[in-house]
Amino acid sequence: MDETTPMRGPMPDNVMAPTRQPGMSDSSLERMLGLLDLFTEDRPSWSVEEICDHLSMSQATGYRYLKLLSRTGLLAPAEGSAFILGPRIVQLDRLMRRTDPLLRHGVPVIERARPELHGMFLLSRHYGDHVLCVHQDMTDPTLRTSMERGRPMELFQGAAPRVVLAFLPTYQLRNLMLRHPDRIRAAGLGASWEEFRARLKAVRKEGTRIAIGEVDAGMVGVAAPIFRAPGAVVGAISLAQSEERFRTEDPARLRALALRIADEISAGFTGGGHQPNGRPT
C-alpha cells in the first residue's frame, strides 16, 4: 500500500498525543501552538528574539514554548539560534493521509469520477476561518494554478470557501461578521448582517457555487459542500478548469457532477446509510 493511500481501521496506538504541561492554561497552550502560524514560505525560520519581539512576550516564555515545541518535534533548531518547522509535522501529515475520514471516503469517489472532468479535483476541509485543500487530483496536466494540497484559503473568496461558508451555523456566521466586516464587504458579501445572510442564502438554495478568476486568473472552480452529519459541513469538493475549457462545458453538468461527488462522500460518513445532506430540499 502506498503511504498516501487512506488506511482503514483504527488509528495506531503508538502515536504520541500532545499533553498540557503542568501550570499551562488553555490560553497559554493556544498561544504556544499559535507560534506555528509564524512560519511561512516567505519566512521559514525565526529566532527566539524575533518571536518574542513579534508577539510581545518575554524571552523566558519564548524559550519555554520553543523548548516544548522542539521536544515534540513540531519545531527543530536551524542555523544559528533560529528554529524551523520540525519532522513531527511530516509524521502527522502521513498519519492524516492514511486515517482522515474525509480522505478515506473522498479519494475513491474522486478516482471513479476522473473520466468525467478535464481539469482538477480539489478536496478541502474546513477549520477555523479557513478551508484547506487536503487532496488534489489533476486530469489536465497543462493546468497552472496556485490551488494545491496544503494551501489554506480564507472563507470569503473562491468556490470551496464560499460554499462551506454558506452552510455554517448562524452563530458562526455572526461571529465572522463581527470579526471580519471589512473582508466580508471587500469580498462582495455585504456591508451588513442582513446582506451577508441574504447572499449566503442564495448559495445554500443553489447548493453549489461557481467562482471565475477569484483565486487564480483564468481559472474556474465549481464547488459543492460535504457533510459529516445532517447540517454539519466538513468541507467541499471543487472541480477546477481553465476558463477556456469551461466555456466549452455545460455548467449544469459540472454542478451536477460536483453535487453527486459531494453526496457520495457525505454518505460515506454514515456508512452508506442515511444521506447527511445539509442542503435544502
TrEMBL record:
Taxonomy, superkingdom: Bacteria
MF annotations from Gene Ontology: DNA binding; DNA-binding transcription factor activity
Domain IclR-ED: 88-271
GO biological process, one term: negative regulation of DNA-templated transcription
Gene3D superfamilies cross-referenced by the UniProt entry: 3.30.450.40, Winged helix-like DNA-binding domain superfamily/Winged helix DNA-binding domain (1.10.10.10)
Pfam families (UniProt xref): HTH_IclR, IclR_C
Annotated PROSITE patterns: HTH_ICLR, ICLR_ED
Domain HTH iclR-type: from-to ranges: 26-87
Segments of this protein annotated with the region Disordered: 1-26
Keywords of the record: DNA-binding, Transcription, Transcription regulation
Record PANTHER family: HELIX-TURN-HELIX TRANSCRIPTIONAL REGULATOR, ICLR FAMILY (PTHR30136), HTH-TYPE TRANSCRIPTIONAL REPRESSOR ALLR (PTHR30136:SF24)
Protein name (database record): IclR family transcriptional regulator
Source lineage: Bacteria, Pseudomonadati, Pseudomonadota, Alphaproteobacteria, Acetobacterales
